[in-house]
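Worked Example 4.2. Consider the chain below.
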Amino acid sequence: MKEIRFDDLDTLNGMITGEYGDFGPAKTLTQDMINQFAELTGDRQWIHVDVERATKESPFGGPIAHGFLTLSMLPALRSADGYRIVGHGNAVNYGANKLRFLAPVPSGAQIKSRSRLKAVEAKPKGTMITNEIEVGIEGSPTPALVYEMVVLYNPPRG
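Applying the procedure from the previous section yields the following structure tokens:
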């Protein structure tokens, strides 16, 4: 895997592309994970946690994961980018430029992610990097979500 320093702006800018990389390995989003997320957040809507009712009444034929649960799986879903950003002291979530939930994720589905480097910008405190990430569902042509994530890579302290 290629290592690129967080402050090597020329190399990082050269990695910007309009095309997504390959999907990383898939992970199963289980009903137990959905139930735990519901308890943690207080979002116990029946479409997520009541398997019997969701199977009978939901337009999706069964329970679906919360959109924000799917989003929160990103650290566990590793895209196959082929490079790793190194040399920074820390990396902080700076925010999102865009987030769209495009398809429901059924309980038990296999999800995977891929990404593309979209922007690199020098900042007084480090380097701001924008990645567009797509979370896919095994067997579905429509992505579960598309997320434009902004991360600030800060230099080591001291």
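The chain has a mean pLDDT of 96. DSSP finds five helices and seven strands in the chain. Compare this with Example 4.1 before moving on.
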